[in-house]
Amino acid sequence: MGRPFQLGMAYDLRKHTLIPGLTLWNHEKLQDKISISDQYDTKFNLHSSDKSEDETSNLKVNGSLKIAAKLGIVEFSGSGSYFTNNVKSDKRAKLTLGYHTTTKFKQLSMDHLTDVSYLSDLEETGATHVTVGILYGADAYFVFEKELKSDENKQEMEGVLTLKILNVPIVSLKVECEASGEKKDSKTVKSDEIRCTFYGDFKLNTNPCTLEESLEVYKKRPYMLGENGEHAVPLQVWLYPLSKIPKAEHPSDCLIRELSDSLITRLSHAIDRLNLVEGKLIDLISDESTKSFVSFLNKLQDMKQKFSHYKADIMTKLAHLLPLIRGYKSEESDLEDLLKRHDDSVFNSTAMDQWLEYRKMELDVLRTFLRQLREVGVNLNEDLHILLSDADIKNVVSFTFTSLEEPDEFLSQLSDSDEEGKAAEIKTWLTRGIIKSMRKKTVLFKDLKKSNNSKSTKFTVSARSNPIISNPSATAGSEHHRLHPGACIMLYEDGSDEAICFCPPAKPVFSATYDINHSSITVRLSPACAATSKRTLEFKPRTKENWKKLFIHQDEVKLTELESDNEYEIRCSAMGILQDLPVTSDIISVRSSDNP
Question: Which domain holds residue 575?
Fold first, then answer.
């Protein structure tokens, strides 16, 4: 684990700390009782698991040391740093190429343990054990990661990474492959998309960052231990309890209480879940789309701050309590009580899971709509006041996300020290009806953008209810947001900061045709809706192309000067505030009479 163990060195197993500078024997006596044997073994593995159990299995870390590392009681270096990479992410495909080799084993003879010189000095330091055996060698872990795109599957991409690594000649060996992704050739990944992190016991001039650099280091690994293995480091150690040495004055002070396996498992799962939730929050906050929506980002950052405070508090309490339990200064029941309070915490509840799931769903939907709007050249812009100040711009049409500033009761009631309590109801503005409405408005907005060629009309995207600094008391925008959840198309006319929620006029409907003769036809329309500002009626003989247009103000219109015994096509168009996008009725066909 990157720690400088030596034979005869004292160790406090309660805190998992080395006590350098003191040994049970002087240097000369120690060297006489050391036996050395060769221990050659080399293993490789390739795996994509993100579970801490698998990581500690690779490093052969026992339960109590694993917990101590997770809580920060023990600091690892070298290959051991691989284990401290606790934050998990669903936004990255991850593959680890592991290398393990051993060279020699050193141990103290058993008769040496009865002939000690400085036992009382060690007992005063709080030591509980002495190092009697060390297995030397080196471990190395090359962690390859690729940021996932929105349309990429994590397991599938891990399979693609596996194929890419295994296809490299210097890695095409008998690697124990545990990658869970599907091994398909259908997708490829470029080398410059792969980021590498190296955790190893080898001394390197520079750490590799790319796939090519990592594989170059991987190729040189057999030579990095030196010709005689002189650069090997302690990989595994054997400890002997001071309480079993006959000359121990206070053997009870050196006793260690091991936590039960069930409690270690429970504790490990609790820490893993804290890291999992933190990873999900980091994924949401770091998403590029999140940065576009300030209100949404602020809520996530608020939750992250409260959760991080809670996590730090519970981890500190655990780190303080565990050494006391192992040294018989506290009981396991104290740990069980602390875990029970954690189990009841809102931060560890299904409500927290639901909150995260809702935020992820909302972000997925926001990202999708934002992508569609960018496809027609419209980007999110919160500097609306700049557009409204431009005298050359007559109208501003804004696709506005209206539900991102809604208050979050769960978040507002959540204290960063909450351990117990009933969580507020978890809500989301996202419903099927709202998504359907947003889709229609997106299509309408895109049509408006495509049909408008005026330089005096600007199209933008916003996510704020009242972006006008000079008029913070304006409530019109907020009212529109309440009436149109999800999104609405806001229209700012002639530089006004009072927005109008644009609604297209209803599709005109012909209710009747009558009084048909050889030269005229009378048609009746259903009454116009409130969003209609003007209507036109167009008609033409079916066999011709050019339409004749009439501006109409009544629901009943008489078409005159028609040809007798001829079939006419008739349609009506309604226009709203934005007249560049009329809504047109279905075409009806009517034949004029052949009798004068």
Answer: 510-591
Q: 220, 217, 267: which is closest to 64 by C-alpha?
A: 267
Total number of domains constituting the chain? 4
| b/e 223-258 (16+ beta carbons within 10 angstroms → b) | ebbeeebebbbbbebebbebbebeebeeeebbbbee
Q: Are residues 147 and 109 located together in one domain of the fold?
A: yes
The pLDDT of 92-101, averaged and rounded, is: 88
CA-nearest of 188, 189, 192 to 211 is 192
Helices (H) and strands (E) in the chain, counts: 14, 20
What does the block give as tokens for 104? Answer: 């020699």
- Distances from the Cα of 422 to the Cα of 88, 338, 351, 352, 571, angstroms: 28, 18, 10, 12, 60
Query: At a CB cut-off of 8 Å and minimum separation 6, what does 462 contact?
Result: 380, 381, 382, 384, 398, 399, 400, 401, 490
**In-domain check, residue 4:** no
- Examine the fold and report which residue of 449, 477, 502 is the final residue of a domain before the chain moves on: 502
pTM of the model: 0.80
Domain harbouring 451, CATH code:
3.40.30
Say if residue 478 is in the same domain as residue 521. Answer: no
40 with 186, same domain?
A: yes
d(CA 69, CA 81): 10
Secondary structure (DSSP) of 480-542: HHHHS-SEEEEEEETT-SS-EEE-PPPPP-EEEEE---SS-EEEEEPPPPTT--EEEEEEEET
Is 346 contained in some domain?
A: yes
Token pair recorded at residue 301 = 């950052």
Residue count of the chain: 596
391 DSSP assignment? T
| Residue 2 forms part of a structural domain | no
Angle at 16 between CA 13 and CA 20, to 5 degrees: 95
Phi and psi at 436, nearest 5°, equal -60, -45
Do 92 and 172 belong together in one domain?
yes
CATH number at residue 514: 2.60.40.10
Alpha-carbon distance of 480 to 58, in angstroms, equals 58
Q: Tell me: the pLDDT tens digits for 405-426? A: 899 999 988 875 555 556 678 9
b/e burial code for range 532-571 (CB count within 10 A of at least 16 → b): beebbbbbeeeeeeeeeeeebeeeebebeebeeebebbbb
**What's the Cα-to-Cα distance from 282 to each of 288, 314, 345, 473, rounded to whole Å?**
12, 19, 21, 35
The angle that helices 294-326 and 261-286 make with each other, rounded to 10 degrees, is 160
Q: Is the pLDDT of residue 182 over 50?
A: no
**What's the mean per-residue pLDDT of the chain?**
83
Residue 183 maps to a domain: yes
Looking at the structure, do residues 201 and 322 belong to the same domain, yes or no? no
Residue that is last in its domain, among 502, 523, 538: 502
Q: Are residues 25 and 52 in the same domain?
A: yes
| Structure-block tokens of residue 596 | 């004068």
Token match 């302690």: residue? 234
pLDDT at 115: 62
Tens of pLDDT, residues 524-542: 999 999 889 999 999 999 9
Using pLDDT thresholds of 50, 70 and 90, give the confidence band for residue 185: very low
Asked whether residue 331 falls in the same domain as residue 404, the answer is no
Q: Please state whether beta strands 395-401 and 487-493 pair in parallel, antiparallel, or not at all (unpaired).
A: antiparallel
Give the integer Cα–Cα distance in Å for 317 and 202.
Answer: 35
**126/212 same-domain check:** yes
- Report H helices in 551-594: none
